[in-house]
Request: fold
Amino acid sequence: MMQCLLLSGGQVLLKLALQKAGDFVWTKEFWQNLLTNWHFFACGICYGLATLIWFYILRHFPFSVAFSLISLTYVFGMVAAIVFFEEEISLSRVVGVLMIVGGCCFIAK
Reply:
């Protein structure tokens, strides 16, 4: 679960970094804004830590279980969308996330 939280956190930080960097264009100014943003740096740390945890997971658990349980990242991502970006989530998306959670429960047993 920690790996999923780190991946989701990295995505939130990346979105925040991109919002602060301005419009996505291939200019020196955009890349300077992005690369000097602490959100972007923290995003890299989250991804790096998630990768180290993934190494452990791959070594100690069946790939079919480990890879399937990464889908919990979608659940954390939706919660982050609501909390950090104040997005409105439709009922169909909530149902979809609940199905992911249900599937993860079946896989984890």
The chain has six helices and no strands. The first helix runs from residue 2 to 21. Residues 2-108 form one domain.
